[in-house]
Amino acid sequence: MKLLIVEDEVKTGEYLQQGLRESGFVVDWARNGLDGHHHAMIAPYDLIVLDVMLPDIDGWRILRSLRESGNDTPVLFLTARDAVEDRVKGLELGADDYLVKPFVFTELLARVRTLLRRGRAPTQIDQLEVADLVLDLPRRRATRAGTRINLSSKEFALLELLIRRQGEVLPRSLIASQVWDMNFDSDTNVIDVAIRRLRAKVDDGFEPKLIQTVRGMGYTLDVPDGR
Q1: Would residue 192 be called left, alpha or beta, if left means φ above 0 and alpha means ψ between -120 and 50 degrees?
Q2: Does residue 185 surpass a pLDDT of 50?
Q3: N or C: which end of the chain has fewer CB within 10 A?
Q4: What is the pTM of this model?
Q5: Omega of the bond prior to 208 within 30 degrees of 0, cis?
Q6: What whole-number distance in Å separates Cα of residue 180 and Cα of residue 172?
Q7: Helix orientation angle between 105-117 and 10-22, rounded to the nearest 10 degrees
């Protein structure tokens, strides 16, 4: 499942992103309110973890805008504002839960899972498909045209990211942060090597070729036009 974190404190954002990824979620992290609002409006998320005190546009305004636009994505406020009136305000604006900093990650994870189960369990996706490529998420298995593809854990995570973002051109920096939890170093070719190895397993001997390079921009996975 795909989560969005909107958090301007770097240490908190990194802590949340790493912990939630290790718990099996795909995680995007917006480091200011404007970017968070943009992501929430244009991309589908299963849940948003939203700070209130952001430097440009606060979490109250972001939530109000989402709800006024008809976006009903569950929102968990995560904030240092612990006054009762703040909690009431958040819930009245349409937040689904409210957790005060400092927090214990296990409690946050429990709340996240509870919100995701609330009315959403029947739609949980266990399988991702593009053409004849199939990812079995619970069993962490990949097949193409019925043939098992043996992938390492990082290769599976990379392929899952590409499929979940089908048709999007993903820059190396995003791939590095999502799959390797690292900042992209332009002097390293780790992403290119990983894509090359994954392409050899997923595309060699199969048609159509799904993993594509967009020169100067990054990589995408999609069915070529006309197929």
Answers
A1: alpha
A2: yes
A3: C
A4: 0.54
A5: yes
A6: 11
A7: 60
In order, the DSSP letters of 62-98 are HHHHHHHTT----EEEEES---HHHHHHHHHHT-SEE
3-class DSSP assignment, residue 209: coil
Q: What is the per-residue pLDDT for 193? A: 92
Look-up of token digits 């739609």 = 123
For 2-122, the fitting CATH number among 3.40.50.2300, 3.90.1150.10, 3.30.1490.10, 3.40.120.10 is 3.40.50.2300
pLDDT in tens, 133-150: 999 988 889 999 999 999
Q: How far separated are the first and last CA of the chain, in Å rounded?
A: 28
pLDDT at 205: 93
pLDDT for 7-20, tens place per residue?
999 999 999 999 99
Supply the angle between the helices 153-164 and 190-202 in degrees, to the nearest 10. Answer: 80
Q: Quick one: tokens of 12?
A: 């908190």
Q: What is the mean pLDDT of residues 87-94?
A: 83
pLDDT of residue 55: 84
Stretch(es) of the chain classified as CATH 1.10.10.10: 127-221
3-39 as b/e: b if 16+ CB within 10 A? bbbbbbeeebbeebbeebbeeebbbbbbebbebbbeb
- The answer to whether 130 and 169 have CB atoms below 8 angstroms apart is no
CATH 1.10.10.10 holds for 127-221: yes
Least confident of 26-40, 164-178, 197-211: 164-178
